[in-house]
Amino acid sequence: MASVDSGMNTLQRAEFRGNAREYFGIWIVNVLLTIITLGIYSAWAKVRRMRYFRGNTYLDGHSFDYHARGLQIFLGRFIVFIVISIINVVTTVYPLIGIATPFVFLAILPWFVVRSLRFNARISSYRNIRFDFNGTPWGAFKAIILGSLVSFFSLGILAPFASRWVNRYVFNHLSYGDRGFATDPKVSDLYRGWLLPALMVVLGLLIAAVAAWIYLAPFVYQMMGELDQFNDEERLGLTILAVYAVLIPLLLIFWIAGFVYGVAVRNIVMNSTRFDEIHPLYSDLSRGRYFWIFVSNFVVTLLTLGLMRPWAAVREARYVAEHSGVVPKGDIGEIMASIQASGSAISAEYMDMEGMDFGF
């Protein structure tokens, strides 16, 4: 299903042409070599995986491409590892410096994020034209760091504002060839997508409160002198049971709510995004269907000790691709010809400017 008639314009849906049997050969080699090399090969494994999935994702009959090299990803990870190791050693030797560590990390994190976004854009292409990202570290700090803090300290109530800031920062600094993307999702739409997850979180808190009362009640009675028969080991066992009975349902509900919210945000942001100011992007992921795919993939992978992971990855990629697309305003061939006229020269310049992937 590559396209759907949409009035005067045609919705060009993406499609995924890979299959589990084909990907299994790539996956099993990646796993074995990563184990043998104690994780070092994972950088090259990522390149093979990404090339397969990008190369099998098609839009209007043309696939995407992934141009990264394993060494670039390895060096990026190595630099991050060295930075974190230095911070840990310094704070161990001089504990007082540990007070400043979070602030130092927050100061350098936006730089890592920008470099990663730029790298991942520039090593991605479609029809031999590269993407690009021109955001700044200060912009990343405001959108991502401050946005996360606002969301956290507001207990999630202001999460839609944070989602808007982050996605505006990413999409409004993303380009394809010499044409840019732009998005401006409405806060009201984001709050409509936030409502169901918020209700789920409230439900999770109620369940945790009930579980806490049920499993902590014996301690309350003991304080009243009614359960003096508990020894120290039994008290410890009840304490551990109470903690798990409260935390497990709470964390599970929080995770599900986060997943549901993330799908809603993706649809809202994609549908409010325009390429070159006139061509709308499109997304219609079903929160229920996508959640079922994710959970069933996890269960099947777990029950088969990981051997069905390729099938699960292909299944998810196919669903996401088939529910994503673009609505070109005009003949897509003419649009691409216009972009290629200027975009091919820009792409050539990126060959020596790709840098490294820091994993953010």
Describe this structure in words.
It is a single chain. With 360 residues, the protein is of the alpha+beta class. The two termini are 33 Å apart. Helix 6 crosses helix 7 and helix 7 runs antiparallel to helix 8. The protein is built from eleven helices and eleven strands. It is globular and about 75 Å long. A ten-stranded antiparallel β-barrel has the order 2-3-4-5-6-7-8-9-10-11, surrounded by six helices.
Rg, please? 24 Å
Terminal-residue CA separation = 33 Å
Biggest sheet features: 10 strands, antiparallel, barrel
Q: Count of DSSP helices?
A: 11
The percentage helix is 55-70%
Number of strands: 11
Which band does the percent of strand residues land in?
5-15%
| Uncertain ranges | 3-8, 347-353
Mean pLDDT: 85
Q: What's the quaternary structure here? A: single chain
- Quickly give the structural class: alpha+beta
Please state the overall shape, judged from the principal axes of the Cα atoms: globular
